[in-house]
Write a structure and sequence with these properties.
The complex is a heterodimer of chains A (619) and B (203).
Chain A (H helix, E strand, L loop, with lengths): L1 H5 L3 E4 L2 E9 L2 E8 L14 H5 L3 E3 L8 E3 L1 E2 L11 E2 L14 H5 L12 E7 L1 E4 L3 E3 L16 E3 H8 L20 E8 L15 H15 L4 E6 L9 H10 L3 E4 L4 E4 L6 E6 L6 E6 L1 E6 L1 E3 L3 H7 L27 E3 L9 H19 L3 E4 L4 E3 L9 H5 L5 E2 L9 E2 L9 H5 L5 E3 L4 H12 L7 E6 L3 H10 L8 E6 L7 H9 L4 E6 L11 H17 L7 E5 L5 H16 L3 H10 L11 H16 L1
Parallel strand pairs in A: 9-20, 11-18, 12-13, 12-18, 13-14, 26-27, 26-28, 28-29
Antiparallel strand pairs in A: 2-3, 3-8, 4-5, 6-7, 10-19, 15-16, 16-17, 22-25, 23-24
Chain B lengths: L12 E6 L11 H9 L4 E7 L5 H14 L3 E6 L2 H14 L7 E5 L1 H5 L6 H20 L7 E4 L3 E5 L3 H12 L3 E5 L14 E2 L4 E2 L2
Parallel strand pairs in B: 1-2, 1-3, 3-4, 6-7
Antiparallel strand pairs in B: 8-9
Helix pairs in contact in B: 1-5, 2-3
Classes of the chains: A alpha/beta (619), B alpha/beta (203).
Amino acid sequence: MADVGRHPNIELLAYSEVENVAGYVGNFTVTVRKKARYVDVKECTACGDCIDVCPVTAPDEFEEGLATRKAIYQPFPQAVPSAFVLNIDECLGNNPIACGKCLEVCDKDCIDYDDKDEHVDIDVGTVIVTTGMEVYDPTELDEFGYTRYENVITSMEFERLINSGGPTEGHLIRLTDHKQPKTVAFIQCVGSRSENKGNPYCSNICCMNTVKDCLLIKDHYPEIDIKVFYIDIRAFGKGFEDLFQRSKEKGAIYIRGIPGEIEEDPETRNLKLYVENTTAGGTDCHEVDMVVLSVGVHARADSDAIQKLLTLQRSQDGFFLEAHPKLKPVDAATQGVFFAGCAESPKDIKDSVTQAGAAAARANRLMMQGKVSVEAITSTIIPDLCKACGICVKVCPYNAISCDTKAKTPAVVVEAACSGCGACSAECPFGAITMKHFTDRQIEAQIDAMLEYNSQDKVLAFACNWCSYSGGDLAGTNRFQYPPNTRLIRTMCSGRVDKKFVLRAFARGAPIVLLSGCHFADCHYINAVHWTQRRVEKLWDELEKKGIRPERLQLEWISAAEGQKFATVMRAVEDLRQKVTPEEIEHTKKALAGVLEPPKPKAAAKKATEEEAAAQAAA
Amino acid sequence: MAKLDAEGEQLRVGVFVCQCGHNIAGTVDCEAVAKFSETLDDVVAVFNNKYTCSEPGQLEVKNAIDEHNLNRVVIASCSPRMHEPTFRATLAGADLNPYLLEMANLREHCSWVHMGEPEMATDKAKDLVKMAVARARSLEAQDEMIVPITQKALIIGGGIAGIQSALDLADAGYKVCLVEKEPSIGGIMAAIDKTYPTMDCSI
């Protein structure tokens, strides 16, 4: 930690938050809000004079609320930067009648009650997301009585109690009588591996954390009895089994079974644990002095903000989703962005450090080249067809298109800013925007090829590259089986799927057309998926007016993590397909026959003809 | 009849059907798919590979591009999200613009999800190749934009992972900006007493 503070190449912005990210790989501009700290970080020497005079006390978050701090405080003794912070909501303020004491005693004048938040823009080439995780709050699990029984604590609270720098200076005590417990029980998988309350996944770190805690207790107090209630002990890492065995040798008793209920003896404040011993059989009651809930971890509640800023994806468990689970485990799908630590999945310190090294190496690999090639999937305006209506400007999530609607000059795309979703191309009413590598002609060729024969047996599904197509890949990797009637056409974003593609598919005899894209929060192109929804809603109306059942056009949001959902949707659309009659298909083909007629000559074609005529005349 | 592409060049499509060992060939009749591919417009060469992504597989693609003067390549194998970068590089190695590649996903979207229905899966595979060839015929060469990279990294979060990433990059000579929401770095790790497996202090 101290190395970070003094490294000449590291600029540390503590008490700050990323508020905006613009740009793309190699060229991100990040806006950071430096929150008002009310204490000058550079000047403060953490002498502590202000603490002595501050009259306000508040629960100390670092000590899990087991101790108090002042309104001006240092988060913990080894904090980096080594400077105080003032909680302005708790502070009595710069009113000499009310307080202002800290200001008076501070020799270096580093306290400023009028400090304001400050915004700074930073240009960076790569981003590593190491936002970490949150610890599960077991209050909702009534059976364990956390917060109802004072002697039931969490493993994080235990950490502070056993820590020599903690509120008890490392003396393990019960909270009710401040006496050393004779028996301590640990309950594993609290908030983990549960289909009901908490999380369904294994939190990875809690088994070994408890093994460690058992050893700590036995090192300090060999006389304390320890009982660990568990489902499985997962001690799979290097050296882990040794530690587990050592804790048993030191006397920790492991009992297979999770207590169904805890009762408190109102007099002794001891706790009775009722548990089914699944190894020996039978239900037992264990009376202990203290219970430690070995709590799991979950994704941070504020992950949404970072997810949107960097257009990331998250797996079903809420943690950030890597570009590939085996081959790109620290890369985000967004180029130039990497993950490390618990932001990606629950992991211990060693794995976090390993992954951090990997993420740094991946970022280094990009940056050391000095330049990067960006996929040539961008939009281009056909100036002759553009009527300068300005719709594309509104559609573009990246503000990459500009258009002077008054001067009626054709729109212009800034290619470096275009990310290639294609929503502009699909929304342009004049066909004046071409999406490179996903042109109308290319997509229509796929539609026509698919539906040339036996169209009545097939479902056409458009899938966006980042979510739905990947969801389909995941269904494959997991071998989730579904009927073989669907054919996917991949576009970068579902926002690229032009209305005319859907109508063309119906005109070619498709019984069912499915549009699938990212969930709104997952959209790789900020909010381009909103245009998909708007377009489909309009299309439903249009189909209905033409006597075509709107149900034949399906819209589904499938994330890259939803392989199971992908398979379910594929089964559902096949069920729908079977209900579409040949007569219905024929009727649709007739109703939409006009869609297949070649487009009328447009300005460009006319101009070309004129030029040709002029050339001929010249010849 | 062979068509001309936008550049006025005669279209010459090569199709490579990958068996992926047993992964695709275990369900899909790859030979039938290859045979069917020969009937598609502008397809001038069809190959059946055991592993197209392997070194010999890629060499076969390169040689075929040279030998048959291919100007469009369709690789019917796994997901483009898996191997599109691989095969784009193969094309580039044969002096063909990487954007003249199209992939048909016969593995994740076909053989692995229709394991009990080999005939239907083979029909679907044929359609997927047909669609890929149709798209390939109208693909155009693209030039990628080369942009400079700012020699600075942003690390969001100052827990153990952020600290380690920041130090590694800073030691490698890059400027690093480490943003932490809380008043101090250290994260959850800082609150932990001893850490396993070394049983030493966390800070």
